[in-house]
Design a protein that fits this description.
Order of helices and strands of chain B: EHHEEHHEHHHHEHEHEHEHEEHHHHHH
Oligomer: heterodimer
Number of helices of chain B: 18
Radius of gyration of chain A: 20 Å
Strand content of chain A: under 5%
Number of helices of chain A: 10
Largest sheet of chain B: 6 strands, parallel
Radius of gyration of chain B: 32 Å
Distance between the termini of chain A: 20 Å
Helix content of chain A: over 70%
Number of strands of chain B: 10
Order of helices and strands of chain A: HHHHHHHHHH
């Protein structure tokens, strides 16, 4: 019943969207991209030369990018007269923004900048895909309300944190491989220590697990308010709870005798593959109520 | 104004000679005072490290005499026969002296290419000399330039970042795995020169605890006292490996001491927390079949030497970039020096012209008896005006135009042309 309420077409609304799309200002779009590109350049330079100035510039540009990205999201939402997570591209942009935010948080907490060069490309890809793609045929009548907004934002934050732990685990495995095989290239001396990568990955997953737990709970509350029933069978629920359990398992296992080190990192990567499956297969073919995340 | 440098380093003098030419802080102060009182140098600075002793100075007058004067001063000061000392000494003037100092400060002249200590030593030498007033405007500027050069080379090139010894490479590798070593501990198995170096590097990096294990009980006791380490009974493998994260092993033994079984038990005892083993023994102390144990990282002396070799190549490939930075700063210093000298030259020229004008008028004014005193004054004023105009304009331009100063490369020639005429006549 509420599933169908998502898809009642209203021609007059679509007309207004298309009119407004042409007037969405591109200034913040450009500024965001510029800041992210400069940030990537600085982080890469930091990775290769170890210049502290370059590292600091990377952080500063990423911070500026975050601010500009916020305004770009705001512009876009105003232009389209909707919330950013209303459509796929908006969701992706929001995902990129939260990824940048989570990364900056981790960077400040762990005082380690050499991961920036690996994370910022993902942010740029999500931002570009979201903002350069043409906005077509928007499904109208978005779900509204603060509970729903928190549900969506927290879920996207969780996925951003999981994506970050995925990147960190990939770096861990690559660096571990080089160190174990005693084949040290140029970059090994600049990468974060293995121990730090493990800890960063764990704190990132912890953020993810907490926010997905709250986000999912809010989702149930919202559905309950909307329909009076908190449980509808939806494959997305099952997969989300599976994801939650898998990451909780990672948090537990990552410090045990058998799993600590490379095995835990592989588990973390496997978990993210499940997340991607949940985005693609489950959302596109199996779920009625979840469109993009 | 001229800069003179006389000195010796690890390339020109053997250790025994270098040892005899070193300066303590007190000696450096005394040398500076003597050099000034004897009229050898107006400004001076002694840079003395275990690999070099160098005397930088600004002599009162331009003459190559000063360098030989400095050589004999050195041999007298340290009571070394001049013929023994002189073969080891190098002398540089002006640009070459500036270049030498900037390269030293950048670590390009060091025994270990790009080592970091020299920059601190240059800074200290400058600080002391500045404190007791041995330096002046030229050496102050010169050494500030040298420190800037050193800092830039270190932050903008890879010259100093890579470990250059087996010990340093091993410790850096441990940091790749564990991060900061402050909460880690290390076990030293056996003993050897390199393990001692590793221990001192680990100490520098703030390792929390050290353990020592040795076949000979007496030796173990000595080492434990020497390193300030805790003693572990030989063969007590189970308890030995539960705490330490880094193992430095150099046991002389035909058979591998750390067999797969021992290491397997060790990893279990530490519930698979990462263990880094530096196997410095020849033949190897770690059984090669143990290398695939989970979360165990084994590097033998050959692996570590290979890393050092790679790093040496990487450092050497950075030399051109470092040299370019050095050249840039030489240019900066020389153009500063030229501008100071040009301004001095113009001032000297002006006072000389004043003098000449007074003599000139005195000589000719008698033939102008028909002029009234007020007219004579007027003529004098006119001449002043003309001379000022001719001189003030170039002087102002010299102060204002950087490009012009750069073009006038040889201030010495200008000085000869305008100011030394009187002497040669």
């Amino acid at each position: 019943m509420f599933a169908t309420s998502f898809s009642t077409p209203t021609p007059s609304l679509s007309l207004r969207y298309t009119l407004n799309v042409t007037t969405v200002p591109h200034l913040f779009l450009f500024l965001t991209l510029l800041a992210y590109a400069l940030s990537l350049g600085s982080y890469t330079r930091y990775l290769y030369t170890g210049s502290k100035l370059a590292g600091r510039l990377g952080t500063i540009f990423l911070g500026l990018g975050l601010v500009a990205h916020y305004f770009a999201l705001l512009d876009r939402s105003r232009g389209l007269n909707t919330v950013p997570y209303h459509d796929l591209y908006g969701s992706m942009s929001l995902f990129g923004w939260l990824l940048a935010l989570t990364y900056l948080g981790l960077e400040f907490y762990h005082r380690q900048r050499s991961v920036g060069a690996f994370v910022v490309p993902f942010i740029i890809v999500f931002f570009l895909a979201a903002h350069l793609a043409t906005v077509d045929r928007l499904p109208p009548a978005p779900a509204r309300g603060i509970v729903f907004a928190l549900h969506v934002t927290l879920s996207i934050l969780a996925y951003a944190a999981f994506a970050l732990s995925f990147v960190l685990s990939l770096i861990y495995l690559a660096e571990n491989r080089l160190l174990r095989n005693r084949k040290l290239g140029e970059v090994v001396w600049r990468l974060p220590p293995l121990d730090l990568l493990e800890r960063m990955s764990r704190s990132s997953v912890l953020i993810g697990v907490i926010s997905i737990a709250i986000g999912t709970a809010l989702g149930f509350i919202w559905v309950d308010r909307l329909t009076g029933q908190y449980w509808y069978y939806d494959p997305k629920y099952v997969v989300t709870i599976l994801v939650l359990l898998l990451y909780a398992a990672y948090l537990q296992l990552a410090r045990t005798t058998t799993w600590r080190g490379a095995r835990a990192s592989r588990l973390c990567i496997f978990n993210f593959v499940v997340v991607i499956l949940s985005f693609t297969v489950v959302n596109l073919y199996l779920s009625n109520t979840h469109r993009y995340f | 104004m001229e800069i003179v440098l006389v000195g010796l380093n690890h390339r020109t003098a053997p250790l025994e000679l270098r040892e005899r030419v070193t300066f303590t802080t007190d000696q450096a102060r005394r040398a500076a005072a003597e050099l000034r009182s004897r009229g050898l140098l107006e400004e001076s600075l002694v840079l003395s490290t275990c690999n070099r002793s160098e005397l930088y100075g600004v002599p009162p007058e331009t003459s190559h005499e000063s360098a030989s004067g400095l050589s004999s001063f050195l041999s007298e000061f340290h009571s070394i026969r001049p013929d023994v000392l002189n073969v080891a000494l190098y002398q540089h003037y002006d640009r070459a002296a500036v270049r030498h100092l900037f390269r030293v400060s950048a670590g390009l002249d060091s025994l270990l290419l790009g080592e970091a200590e020299i920059l601190g030593q240059v800074r200290e030498a400058y600080r002391f000399a500045h404190e007791y007033g041995a330096t002046g405007p030229v050496l102050n500027r010169l050494f500030q330039g040298a420190l800037e050069t050193g800092k830039r080379v270190r932050s903008e090139t890879e010259l100093g970042t890579r470990p250059m010894s087996v010990a340093a490479a091993g410790v850096k590798l441990a940091e790749r795995i564990f991060g900061k070593l402050a909460e880690r501990s290390a076990l030293v198995l056996g003993a050897g020169t390199i393990s001692e170096q590793v221990v001192s590097t680990l100490r520098d990096r703030g390792i929390a605890h050290l353990y020592v294990m040795n076949r000979s009980r007496d030796r173990a006791q000595t080492l434990a006292t020497q390193f300030g380490a805790r003693l572990i009974e030989w063969g007590n493998w189970d308890s030995a490996f539960s705490a330490p994260d880094v193992v430095v092993s150099s046991v002389s033994s035909e058979e591998p001491v750390l067999t797969r079984a021992i290491l397997e038990a060790a990893m279990a005892a530490r519930s698979n927390r990462a263990l880094f083993v530096m196997d410095l023994g020849v033949p190897r102390n770690v059984d090669p079949s143990a290398a695939d144990l989970y979360n165990l990282y084994v590097y033998n002396i050959e692996n570590l030497t290979e890393i050092v070799e790679q790093n040496r190549a990487a450092r050497e490939s950075e030399i051109p970039r470092a040299e370019a930075i050095v050249e840039e700063h030489i240019g900066k210093f020389l153009s500063w020096q030229a501008s100071v000298e040009l301004v001095g030259l113009v001032d000297a020229l002006r006072s000389r012209i004043r003098e000449e004008r007074a003599a000139f008028i005195r000589a000719r004014i008698d033939s102008m008896n028909h002029l009234a005193p007020s007219d004579r004054e007027h003529v004098e004023d006119l001449m002043d005006e003309l001379l000022e105009k001719l001189l003030v304009e170039p002087a102002t331009r010299l102060r204002g135009e950087k490009e012009l100063r750069r073009k006038i490369q040889n201030v010495e020639a200008l000085r000869d042309l305008f100011l030394s005429k009187k002497d040669k006549r």
